[in-house]
Design brief:
Blueprint: E1 2-5, E2 8-18, E3 27-33, E4 35-36, E5 50-51, E6 56-63, E7 69-73, E8 92-102, E9 105-115
Parallel strand pairs: 4-9
Antiparallel strand pairs: 1-2, 2-3, 3-5, 6-7, 6-8, 8-9
Length: about 120
Amino acid sequence: MRKLVTGFLLLVSCFCIAQTDSTANDTCKIIVPNAISPNSEPPVDKLIIYYNCTFSDFEFTIYNRWGNKIYETNSLNNDNSVNWKYQLVEEGTYFWVLKCIIQEKEYKGTGYVTLVK
């Protein structure tokens, strides 16, 4: 998915899991944007995780470029955003890991998010 947002191209990392073998409509999609800009307008002003399925045991972790864990959560806010304190870190690219259980199977997705201040 591509979208031009306030001067930069927003791409998203998506991992998709077929919930059943029946149709493509059963595909579970969990989407994490690859860029956020806190000084911008919604939806790119915070890190929002989009999804179309039910999952449990959610774990989302962000690492800096040296591999140090800088954020971890087991829950999402009501608007599906995470409480990453991006005001406390430098502009740059960060690595994320998302783990969850969908229909009793554990899944892991990874990607990068660029913070543009």
